[in-house]
Design a protein that fits this description.
The protein is mainly α. It has one helix at 2-87. The N and C termini lie far apart (130 Å).
């Protein structure tokens, strides 16, 4: 009987060890997935920041173009007034 009891205990210990190893592997895999998700969120945030920078740069260019167009319109208006003055 004692041999049978030792075999049962050894088998039970092996099952417990296998369960512990399986749980550790699952925890490790879950941690790796969590790290990948965090990295993906950081990349996403960086992408949005880059898009915001691009949009701001485009807005600055558009603002500069608008200023130049307004200045050109003012110049044309001044030249038109000068020409009208010359005709009088």
């Amino acid at each position: 009987m004692s041999t049978l009891l030792i075999v049962i205990i050894v088998v039970a210990v092996l099952i417990v060890v296998a369960l512990l190893v399986s749980a550790a592997n699952r925890r490790k895999h879950t941690g790796q997935i969590a790290e990948a998700q965090v990295a993906a969120k950081h990349d996403d945030a960086d992408h949005h920041r880059e898009q915001a920078r691009d949009a701001r740069a485009e807005a600055e260019l558009a603002e500069e173009r608008a200023k130049r167009a307004a200045a050109e319109a003012d110049l044309n208006e001044r030249q038109a007034r000068e020409r009208e003055q010359e005709l009088k």
